[in-house]
């Protein structure tokens, strides 16, 4: 093959910048609870409505780059989702509504590599440098993989900032890794949240370890409670405020979301081999968070929803 022919083949086979790699999926819709049409959960904070649960699987069974979704953010207009995987990739999913029942389908998935601060692609695969666990954005997500993104990693505990979303050719490593020295190797930062700016002041980056550290508190007490270390990081001043988060019954924090007004919800998950998975959604007010950050206090969030596979 001539050099010019080889170049042409390379150009045809290499995705152009900004396109990502298209993945084709099988998808199934699942109920909130098996055998039940119930789709709401009522609490003192209001009513949560189950919109939809989708099971997604790559059509290609061998060498799939899709799977292990660790954290998801949703476009403000509902047009798409952006996820990170524990294999070290961004996964940009477009949503389309069904004209029959008004529910959503994933119409397209594009996978983008992550780049380290030196501009190298973070190796793809489970574990190692690419074990991405948490995803958050500065402001609102508008879709298309854009925005200033923050990703946390386990193993080599760190947080990288991607200034141009999935198109970022270099990331910036935030000066926070020293904080996580006592986080277990496989129990680092899964729950992170970039607070939205208020009155022109940049929001803090909230980070919570999935499992308790050896130095912050006993792992459990007689009631099965655990205390998890958390931090609020100011990117401008690099000041850090310490706080703690309480949980129990083997539920560990895996994601956070901010509501209008500054209150937040925390997603907890539980896995016991003999019982399967469990999920909790907890609520923390802005006042409670501010107080905990001011004095290094412990948050005891209000549980507003709990679902377990053993319950159907």
UniProtKB/TrEMBL annotation:
Residues 65-294 form the Phytase-like domain. Transmembrane segments: none annotated. Keywords: Signal. The keyword Signal applies. Residues 1-18 form the signal peptide. It comes from the Eukaryota. InterPro entries: Phytase-like_dom, UCP031900. This is Phytase-like domain-containing protein. It comes from Perkinsus olseni.
